[in-house]
Amino acid sequence: MATAIIPDNEDLRLAELRRLEILYTEPEEMFDRVTAELARIFEVPLAEINFVDRNLQFTKSFAADASVPKEFTDMLVIPREISICSHVVGQDKALVIQDMASDPDFADSEISKLGVRFYAGTPLHSEGHAVGTLCLIDVKPRDITPREQQLLHMVAEGVMSAVRLRSATKDLVQRTRAMADDLSHARAVQRFMLPPAEVEAAAYIFTNSYHPMDQIGGDFLDVKEWGDGSIGVLIADVSGHGASAALTSAMTKTSFVRCAHSRCDPSHLLTNLNHSLAPTTEPGRFMTALALVYDPVHRRATLASAGHPL
């Protein structure tokens, strides 16, 4: 059997093949549908989608009838040196063998010894590199017309569109999972910044229930107890939703602790909070807030609000 050519761009070709993350993966219905339809349209007993690695050929999908030797269909991974498809990849062009038994280059091949007579394969391209083949196989000699070769080439392009979509979808799923993990962590951090659901002292009980619309949000509340027994409370709603609003609410927590370090009335608390946040908040972002100071000795609550126009 003729020795397959190793292309000059072999390293780049293999890097692209790795990027697609399709080597040695489980069967997938969308590819099995293609090979089944190809076998039906071309009336061949076997159609395959193969990818050629550095030393091995991997069959991603095949459709075969009973005339194909079981030994052949059992070989989903074979050495590259006995692969006919490696010649297609090496030369980066279609290959048609009408009768393998009488072909001087392939008559003594391992594939021919299994009873294969006809082969027609076209390259599968990704980013300009031949990474595999779409091929038709028969156990008897036959030919393929130029029109049929063109159809095979068009189907090969469709296969690679599906491979690229599969790769992009997998990447999107991984990114989505990573984002979900980040959101879960951010939610835990945001919950950590909130006061307990119930804060109790001799003269009062402060309770809250926190349910943001998204996993994380810009809603915020906190309570600060001063040495004289009075408390300062801040309830705020940052404009927008999601991570950006949650980040502003985290900044609000830090500012509130700093601004409420010493006892002050609600209006001063909001003024100091505004001075602290305004220089660092992104343009267009605002916050509606309600500040409350409760004096348990005189049983008096003082409130101030800010944020929305009158």
Q: Can you describe this structure?
A:
This protein has 310 residues and is an alpha+beta fold. The chain is built from 8 helices and 12 strands. A 6-stranded antiparallel sheet has the order 3-2-1-6-5-4, with helices on both faces. Strand 7 and strand 8 form a beta hairpin. The longest helix has 48 residues. The mean pLDDT is 85.
Quick description:
This protein has helices at 10-20, 29-42, 70-73, 85-91, 110-113, 146-193, 242-259, 266-277; strands at 46-52, 56-64, 77-79, 95-97, 118-126, 129-138, 198-200, 205-207, 219-225, 231-238, 287-295, 300-306. By secondary structure, it is α+β, with helices and mostly antiparallel strands.
List the helices and strands and how they pair.
Layout: H1 10-20, H2 29-42, E1 46-52, E2 56-64, H3 70-73, E3 77-79, H4 85-91, E4 95-97, H5 110-113, E5 118-126, E6 129-138, H6 146-193, E7 198-200, E8 205-207, E9 219-225, E10 231-238, H7 242-259, H8 266-277, E11 287-295, E12 300-306
Antiparallel strand pairs: 1-2, 1-6, 2-3, 4-5, 5-6, 7-8, 9-10, 10-11, 11-12
Helix pairs in contact: 2-6, 6-7, 7-8
